[in-house]
What does this fold into?
Amino acid sequence: MHNAVEHRCDVLIIGSGAAGLSLALKLADHCQVIVLSKSEVSEGSTRYAQGGIAAVFDAQDSIDSHVQDTLIAGAGLCDEDAVRYTASRAKSCMQWLIQFGVPFDTEKGEDGKDRFHLTREGGHSHRRILHAADATGEAVQITLVDAVNRHPNIHVFERYNAVDLIKSKHNPDECIGAYVWNRKLEHVEVIRSRFTALASGGASKVYQYTSNPDVSSGDGIAMAWRAGCRVANMEFNQFHPTCLFHPEARNFLISEALRGEGAILCHANGERFMHKFDERGELAPRDIVARAIDYEMKRLGEDCMYLDISHKPADFIVKHFPNIYRRCRALGIDITRQPIPVVPAAHYSCGGVMTNFDARTDLDNLYAVGEVAYTGLHGANRMASNSLLECIVFAHAAADHITTRLSQPANDEPIPAWDESQVNNSDEEVVIQHNWHELRLFMWDYVGIVRTTKRLERALRRIEMLKQEIEDYYSNFRVSNNLLELRNLVTVAELIVRCAMSRKESRGLHYNLDFPDSMENASPSILAGRNREQNSA
It folds into this structure.
């Protein structure tokens, strides 16, 4: 048995994107914080978010309007209280980011004074998107990382995977830390924490085509589920309609803001098609646009469709979309002169671990913030630029709640070390790779943009087989990054399929050919009743 290293902190934050780092910064003046980052701290979905963050800054706009737009985009499944809670806190949360120095774009107003340049995206009735050119997420991430690195009470553990949450032996509803895998030393360590927060992002890596970075493997959702938390609305996986289609451009998103500024979707011959699917054309919500592109690709047997903004002045394009212009140009595509080849790709998990407005989960002392969580904000479809907003708003809510509880006594019960005495090193990494590819392919084919009951049943049968193989593997071999992620992805795939099978209708991002209509009264798909495991050691 390895003599486990045990770290101690007040708050363990699993994940280092906008949600995790905002939470760390809000807490760090009051307590000791460890931030766990699976890769480098600068890596993660936040960094790749191009569009911006929605907040009401314009006098012509209103919180009521932001709420109504979100409710409409959520296709009748948003929790209106959660939407209002988020929208009403948006401006103060953006001012918090601005104080840290996030360089949101500005312009001269009619009065000659500087004001924020607000853009508009699909589903929004007003210009209310604060942005830093077309690389907002990167600007947010760099600013927060810089602030975190300067704070003496925040300790960042890079290249660590969370393995499982640790629950109290005396109170199985209390979380007291996590087992974590040190990727550099290749062994499992213990982090004992008074409070633990999941800020681990979504699960889009469960699909073959995704706009997300490699770390988005649903780890927090899977760990919370194994520990006994409820999850909800996992069937609503948002497919971004326009991911760059190019063999060397894996994961590169073409921002919705292009369509907000007049880009058109067309076939290879330049013929537009969105008007056949929705009167809003290119500015229809993402689920409609993604289904339209998917339909046209399948109907014509094409590998991609095209997004064209070349009718706009070249200097306008380069000024507003410098990042996209540079990336496409490096691949031989001049977006000022030619259309961009695009395909839909899995982009955002609208469901997740159920929380309340304090970001608390079903386990005492366990919080979930950002894409890993289900707050009720997104409903059946996330409106553009509400995701980074949710990260900041609920990070602040969690921090406020944790701060009020820091005076409580800590649980000091002994934590068993991770037992590696019965396991071997695996020489079968190829098995993991094979299962990984099989899972992502059948999820794309059977549980993708358009579903049927038969396809879902077929996916579930494959998942059951894979689960058994992985469990056998997991109990016999030492853990590795790929094995941990595969174990979590299979868990998340099962949750997605089970939620999808329970929804006998089509709504928002969930489109089932066997149930094409929406029911009159819809409710969230909540999965519970899992046997609450004790520690996985």
The two ends are 12 Å apart (CA to CA). Residues 531-537 have pLDDT under 50 and may be disordered. The chain has three domains: 6-236+350-404, 240-346, 429-517.
